[in-house]
């Protein structure tokens, strides 16, 4: 009788362990999916911000170009066109960021860094561990209870 009960308990324990592993895996997959969606939303916000900024900068650049051109023609001084050079570089950068392939090139460069220069990505004091996080949490909780 004890043997059958022990065998049944072992089977229940195995089923429970399998369920826990499956549940942990599902939780991890959900967390990865959530973090990826948050990353995608942040990138979409950055691109949208760049496009909005480009609208304002484009208007500024157009007005500045008209003003500088009018002033240079009226005074007959071509040196007044000099500020348009850096302003045009900024405009080209913003166009590339908002509508061009800059984000793809940045992504490619980041992937190259992760492969070829992985040592540059190390965090100070290494990757946080459960123990280091728990220690910091205890210190913070202790400070909070003292107040």
From TrEMBL:
Q: Where are the transmembrane segments?
A: 53-73, 79-99
GO BP annotations listed: positive regulation of plasminogen activation
Q: Which Pfam families match?
A: DUF2368 (PF10166)
Q: Which InterPro entries match?
A: Plg-R(KT)
GO annotations of cellular component type: plasma membrane
Alphabetized, the UniProt keywords read:
Membrane, Transmembrane, Transmembrane helix
PANTHER family associated with the record: PLASMINOGEN RECEPTOR (KT)
Identify this protein by name. Plasminogen receptor (KT)
């Amino acid at each position: 009788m004890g043997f059958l009960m022990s065998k049944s308990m072992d089977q229940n324990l195995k089923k429970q362990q399998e369920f826990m592993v499956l549940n942990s895996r599902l939780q991890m997959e959900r967390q990865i999916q959530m973090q990826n969606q948050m990353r995608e939303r942040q990138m979409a916000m950055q691109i949208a911000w760049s496009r909005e900024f480009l609208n304002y900068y484009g208007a500024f650049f157009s007005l500045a170009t008209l003003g500088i051109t009018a002033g240079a023609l009226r005074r007959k001084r071509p040196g007044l066109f000099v500020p348009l050079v850096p302003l045009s570089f900024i405009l080209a950068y913003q166009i590339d960021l908002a509508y061009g392939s800059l984000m793809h090139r940045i992504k490619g460069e980041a992937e190259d860094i992760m492969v070829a220069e992985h040592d540059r990505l190390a965090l100070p004091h290494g990757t946080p561990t459960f123990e280091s996080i728990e220690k910091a949490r205890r210190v913070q909780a202790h400070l909070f209870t003292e107040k």
